[in-house]
Amino acid sequence: MLTSAHMAADLAAIKPALILCGAACVVLLGDVFVWRRTKALSALVALAGALWALAVLLQRVPFAEGGTAFAGGVATDSLAGAGAIALSITLLLAVLLAWTYLPNRNLNYGEYYALLLFSVCGGMLMASAQDLIVLFLGLEVLSFALYVLAGFERASERSDEASIKYFLLGAFASAFFLYGVALLYGATGSTNLAAIASVAATGSRSPMILGGVGLILVGMGFKAGVVPFHQWTPDVYEGAPTSATAYMAAGAKIGAFTALVRILAALVPLESAWLLPVQMLAVLTMVFGNLLAMQQRNVKRLLAYSSVAHAGYLLVALAAMAHKGHSVAGTTAFDMATSAIVFYLFAYVFMTLGAFGVLVYLSARDLDCQTLDDLRGLVRRAPLAAYAMLFFMLSLGGIPPTMGFFGKWMIFLAALKAGEVGLAIVLALTSALAVYYYLKVVWVIAFEEPKKAVPVSGEARIGAVATLLVSAAATILFGVFPFLLTPIVDVLR
Q1: Contact criterion met (CB below 8 Å) for 431 and 383
Q2: What number is the average pLDDT over the span 214-230?
Q3: CA-CA-CA-CA torsion for 303, 155, 88, 76, nearest 10 degrees?
Q4: Domain boundaries defined on the chain
Q5: Average pLDDT over the chain, rounded to whole?
């Protein structure tokens, strides 16, 4: 029987998401009835909601394991908490970027901030979903907001194209995912991951279970930008408004990979069914992502293919999760892999939003900074943006002592502990390959003269500056002192 106490406990479990939903509603209503001319108030409400949700989440650290809400459909464990914190930070930085970018592009509409808030709610549902139906609900809430954000610049044909491509391919991916859920339900009689895990523990190799797992991997692989489901990534990243691309790059990955961790953790007894596909996808994604990134002159497309490669690194850690019984010095490969994934997602948030933040910082009303030519000689024109981009490129390339280096190092060690030596070698080689195109950006910024006089906007950029400073500080701080994140990243122990 559902009592008021149970309902209160359930609502408390999703309090951060409720805060963001409430903030989104306030933004929508306020934009229409209260502050029609003062659009900055929409950004302030979104910032307040993000900070409030983040404060609630940080109060819960360290997170208790094993808790559920809504009849077992929502988990309240450390993975859900870590994912929600990463999403809240992503939201905070994305709102700051939009605060600078939208007025400069004549896109200053309150709906943008509401879409960001609703999208993060969907991502939080994905991170905490203990039931595949809840996961699908979160996936669609996240996705529909992203489809609209990709096409938010209505006057741009590229933005319209990005939205249509993302929507059509995303619809197919959702269909694959939902059909996989149907197969798992038909084979196990439940959509709850705990019940599915119980069936998996019996060693059942039903074709319906195997097919369901495969289709779910396809659906989530699309959201994560995994090869060969990555075709949407470069066009959508390039065509969408830069501030939306920044959020899209990080938010979608957090939702997808926290969901994959939860699903595959439940299916560890069936690792023989999904380990080989994950290994193959990891290799393909790391190799092709980096090779394609090397050919790019457009910075947004370069970061898009870089995003694909980073999905490959995270897949290496997912493969290491399968070896739950492997233990070294009391730490299992599963424990180390899950911690590596969460730490890397945090690193990816700061590195990626920081890099896109530089592009936002340099964009003016009539100039959208996108190409390497736009960055030529930046160190002499805009030292703050130049040195910030230097930090972000070094971190994305995995150069010590940055956060990106420690994240890759954790994944590398997890792969070795799990006996995935081949994947560890591919990870090391492709990471070395990636250094080439990241340092190419650094070279252009520091040593090349601009082909044409590209002005640096004198307009107010407080949001972009704040994003650069926060992201650069976090990239260095957590790279030098990674143990500061230990209470958050030690998940599912």
Answers
A1: no
A2: 91
A3: -100
A4: 15-489
A5: 88
